[in-house]
Design the sequence.
């Protein structure tokens, strides 16, 4: 079976779960996102501060590693991050790359106390 993933499509799906239009859809989205409590947390969650809530789904085959998430920073609006990799033969390198991207996005999206006081 061939599975093709496009970053825009994944982002749209996760945005619809993170920001549902109606109250009913909000309940459905909340239930779906709760189901994404992962045991594999070496990608997007690894780049986040400890205790940051995240609902994410990983996927991988040889040379391909993905993670898509809704990140819930404390006292901030949630955001969606989708990272797709391919052609990286070492899974450890790909996982670290995704964690580094996650860290950089978090730092750019969620101001620290030091940057807020400037």
Sequence:
């Amino acid at each position: 079976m061939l599975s093709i993933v496009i970053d825009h499509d994944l982002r749209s799906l996760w945005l619809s779960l993170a920001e549902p239009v109606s109250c009913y859809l909000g309940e459905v989205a909340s239930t779906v996102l709760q189901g994404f409590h992962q045991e594999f947390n070496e990608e997007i969650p690894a780049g986040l501060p400890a205790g940051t809530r995240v609902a994410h789904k990983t996927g991988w085959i040889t040379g391909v590693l993905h993670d898509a998430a809704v990140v819930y920073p404390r006292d901030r609006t949630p955001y969606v991050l989708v990272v797709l990799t391919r052609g990286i033969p070492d899974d450890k390198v790909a996982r670290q790359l995704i964690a580094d991207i996650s860290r950089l996005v978090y730092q750019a999206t969620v101001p620290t106390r030091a940057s807020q006081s400037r």
Remarks:
- Residues 91-109 form the longest helix (19 residues).
- The mean pLDDT is 77.
- Residues 25 and 80 are 18 Å apart (CA to CA).
